[in-house]
Amino acid sequence: MKLFVSLVAVSIFTQASSQIQGLGPMKLGISTVSMIDSIAKANDVDIVESGSGKRLSATKYKDYMKIFFLRKEEIKKGEFDWQDYQYSIDPNVKTYFINKIDISGVRLSSVYLKFNNGVLYYITCDATKELTEALDAKYGQGSVRSKENDVTCRSNIAGEYKLTETTFTTSWATTAPRFSAEYILKKYYDTKCEAQYLSYFTLKDELIVKQVSSVENSLKDAEEKQAEARKKEALKDF
User: Fold this and answer.
1) Handedness of CA 18, 20, 24, 29 (dihedral sign)
2) What whole-number distance in Å separates Cα of residue 84 and Cα of residue 149?
3) Which long-range contacts (CB under 8 A, 24 or more apart) does 157-166 make?
4) 73 exposed, middle or buried (CB, 10 Å; 0-12, 13-18, 19+)?
5) From first to last of its 238 residues, what are the pLDDT tens digits of the chain?
6) Which of 4, 79, 128, 216 satisfies CB 3.0 to 4.6 Å to 65 for a cystine?
7) Neighbouring residues of 104: CB distance < 8 A, sequence distance ≥ 6
8) CA 159 to CA 43: how far, in whole Å?
9) Cβ–Cβ contacts within 10 Å for residue 37, how many?
10) Which of 210, 206, 190 is nearest to 198 (CA)?
11) Residue 105 near residue 93 (C-beta atoms within 8 A)
């Protein structure tokens, strides 16, 4: 497979609005799912179907581009695998994963693109210094806010004690009130009370995100009711 080439035709540094709507060719409310085929063709790669979170994660540090279309996948027990967390059960949503892509020399990694009824409404990727500097250069310095949350930990030696989790959110102005563009940096504590760090960038249409979430919750509720009905049916002669 050829090394992928940068999408030099589209720049995130071009003269444009100081309000963000996308990254390079990926524009909220404008880009359609056909964009994925264009990216694949431009970089001479195939689009592979998979819902395996383990499989997608394994491509993160590869030197070549991989594009996955997320589908529902039954993961075999004991294989230490999982359904990728970005997969949506909403039948109108299509999710794609690109392990890496260069846009005007800026590397984006672990990129998820979600389309609702064929139109892009959600972008997320790893947050890097290179990306945030590019956003600041084009759209101006982002505004920063922080939030703290105390958690309780316990140990045989120290007993019960408090630790503080902190989330820093940097946001940029967007072209529509319903859009949000945020860089999240979070320090939190796992079940062993060991410090963990998480950082990512998201650009999304909040209205569509809420609509999709509502559909997903309705489908989950219906599935649970059907499962309960099947369980009762199986026990009718009990």
Assistant:
1) negative
2) 27
3) 163/189, 163/193, 165/189
4) middle
5) 444 334 433 344 444 458 999 999 999 999 999 999 999 999 999 999 988 888 888 888 788 899 999 998 776 665 666 788 899 999 999 999 999 999 989 999 999 999 999 999 999 999 999 999 999 999 999 999 999 999 999 888 878 999 999 999 999 999 999 999 999 999 999 989 999 999 999 999 999 999 999 999 999 999 899 988 888 888 887 7
6) 4
7) 6, 7, 8, 10, 11, 12, 13, 24
8) 56
9) 12
10) 190
11) no
Q: Which residues, in sequence order, are CB contacts of 183 under 8 Å at separation 6+?
A: 127, 131, 132, 135, 142, 169, 170, 171, 199, 200, 201
Tell me which residue of 140, 64, 147, 49 sits closest to 99, measured CA to CA.
64
Q: Which residues have a Cβ under 8 Å from the Cβ of 110 and sit 6 or more positions away?
A: 60, 97, 99, 100, 125, 126
Cβ(84)–Cβ(70) below 8 Å: yes
Query: Whose structure tokens read 């800026």?
Result: 106
Strand partners, 107: 102
The residue type at 60:
K
Tell me the pTM. Answer: 0.85
Contacts (Cβ under 8 Å, ≥6 apart) of 164: 148, 149, 150, 151
